[in-house]
């Protein structure tokens, strides 16, 4: 799950696993796999970074267990 | 700024002029005798037909205020609406170019210079970051309310077109009853019968000369306005989805008839990027 800001400054948490595409036109539009589109204030790169951080956090637990 | 609707004005005036000419013109002697008009003027008949029609409409209406408003809607027929399909689509494409270059928030400034309230409302909703489904439902609700109001007005003239002939018939019945009550002199049958039939004539003229044309004019105008607002809704949602202006143009052009489409292609306004 990643925390992002919608156009009207509302913070929402999006399921990162449902992201299909992220476009900058020039506003960032996140299209989910269910066809829903979310307009967000973060740039495309920022969203990508958030997803990466989230996944890292998620999977780092498995490394510790080894 | 209202432009007179030439078609309506020519239609209404020439309709009544030709009818009167038909009454006064005599083919046999190729002469015009205005005295014949007096055959068609009868005060009691006018009271029964027009009085009856308009007062029953008053009974049907929710309030006197709406009755007066709907009667006043007649002037819409004499006007030409200021909007234009091609202009609207060009506006939307210009907006999509702005959104594409500077982002959706830049539309706010552009929105202030737009006159069309419906388009303005839609843009402000988008700028506020409203969800697309919500934008669509808000605009479509407004659309259906507009359509409802229009069909109320159309219904008013439709009812009047039914009431005219009905009260004309009532007037004719009154005339016949009075005529048959004192039928001592058979020579009066003709003149009395003529007076009795004049009410039916008034009713038919009211329906066919005024009401039915008004109903159809308002229907056509309603259809054009609703179509244009649907174009606006589609365009706004496409802008919000970040579609390419060129794609939006192609999408909206399908609403236009071939003539307007050709007019549109002559002076292309869309830019391609992305």
Q: Can you offer a commentary on this structure?
A:
The complex is a heterodimer of chains A (66) and B (274). With 66 residues, chain A is of the alpha+beta class. Chain A contains 1 helix and 5 strands. Chain A has one helix at 44-65, and strands at residues 2-5, 11-14, 19-24, 28-32, 37-40. Chain A has a 3-stranded antiparallel sheet, with no helix packed on it. Chain A has a two-stranded antiparallel sheet with strand order 1-2. The longest helix of chain A has 22 residues, at 44-65. The relative contact order of chain A is 0.21. Chain B has 274 residues and is an all-alpha fold. Chain B has 11 helices and 4 strands; from the N terminus they run βαββαααβααααααα. Chain B has helices spanning 6-24, 43-60, 64-72, 74-77, 85-102, 107-112, 117-127, 132-181, 189-240, 245-253, 258-266, and strands at residues 3-4, 25-26, 31-32, 79-80. In chain B, α2 (43-60) runs parallel beside α9 (189-240) and α9 (189-240) packs antiparallel against α10 (245-253). Chain B is elongated. The two termini of chain B are 40 Å apart. Classes of the chains: A alpha+beta (66), B mainly alpha (274). The interface between A and B is medium-sized, with 12 and 16 residues. Chain A: Pfam families: FlbD (PF06289). Chain A: Keywords: Cell projection, Cilium, Flagellum.
Gyration radius of chain A, in Å = 13 Å
Rough shape of chain B?
A: elongated
The greatest interface here is: A-B, 12 and 16 residues
Helix content, binned percent of chain B: over 70%
Name of the top-level CATH class of chain A: Mainly Beta
Question: Architecture of chain A in CATH?
Answer: Beta Barrel
Q: What is the H/E order of chain A?
A: EEEEEH
Count of β-strands of chain B: 4
Oligomer: heterodimer
**Mean pLDDT figure of chain B:** 90
| Estimated helix fraction of chain A | 25-40%
Number of β-strand runs of chain A? 5
**Strand portion of chain B:** under 5%
Instruction: Please give the largest β-sheet of chain A.
Output: 3 strands, antiparallel
Q: Can you count the helices of chain A?
A: 1
| Computed CA radius of gyration of chain B, to the nearest angstrom | 27 Å
Total domain units of chain A: 1
What does the largest sheet of chain B look like?
Answer: 2 strands, antiparallel
InterPro entries (chain A): SwrD-like
Keywords (chain A): Cell projection, Cilium, Flagellum
Protein name (chain A): Flagellar FlbD family protein
């Amino acid at each position: 799950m990643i925390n992002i800001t919608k156009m009207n400054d509302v913070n929402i948490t999006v399921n990162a696993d449902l992201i299909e595409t992220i476009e900058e036109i020039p506003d960032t539009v996140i299209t989910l796999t269910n066809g829903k589109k979310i307009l967000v204030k973060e740039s495309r790169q920022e969203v990508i970074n958030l997803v990466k951080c989230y996944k890292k956090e998620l999977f780092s637990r498995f490394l510790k267990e080894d | 700024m209202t432009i007179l609707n030439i078609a309506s004005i020519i239609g209404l005036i020439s309709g009544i002029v030709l009818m009167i000419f038909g009454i006064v013109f005599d083919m046999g002697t190729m002469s015009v005798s205005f005295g014949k008009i007096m055959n068609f003027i009868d005060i009691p008949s006018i009271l029964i037909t027009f009085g009856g029609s308009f007062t029953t409409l008053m009974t049907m209406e929710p309030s006197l205020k709406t009755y007066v408003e709907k009667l006043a809607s007649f002037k819409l027929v004499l006007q030409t609406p200021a909007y234009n399909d091609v202009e609207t689509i060009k506006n939307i494409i210009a907006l999509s170019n702005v959104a594409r270059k500077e982002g959706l928030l830049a539309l706010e400034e552009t929105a202030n210079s737009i006159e069309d309230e419906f388009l303005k409302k839609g843009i402000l909703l988008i700028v506020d970051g409203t969800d697309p489904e919500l934008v669509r439902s808000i605009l479509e609700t407004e659309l259906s309310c507009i359509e409802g109001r229009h069909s109320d007005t159309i219904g008013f003239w439709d009812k009047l077109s039914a009431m005219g002939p009905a009260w004309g018939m009532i007037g004719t019945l009154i005339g016949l009853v009075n005529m048959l009550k004192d039928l001592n002199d058979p020579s009066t049958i003709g003149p009395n019968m003529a007076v009795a039939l004049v009410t039916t004539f008034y009713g038919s003229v009211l329906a066919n000369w005024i009401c039915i044309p008004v109903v159809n004019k308002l229907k056509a105008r309603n259809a054009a306005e609703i179509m244009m607002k649907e174009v606006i809704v589609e365009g706004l949602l496409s802008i919000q989805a970040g579609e390419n202006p060129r794609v939006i143009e192609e999408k909206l052009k399908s609403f236009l008839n071939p003539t307007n489409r050709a007019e549109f292609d002559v002076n292309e306004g869309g830019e391609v990027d992305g």
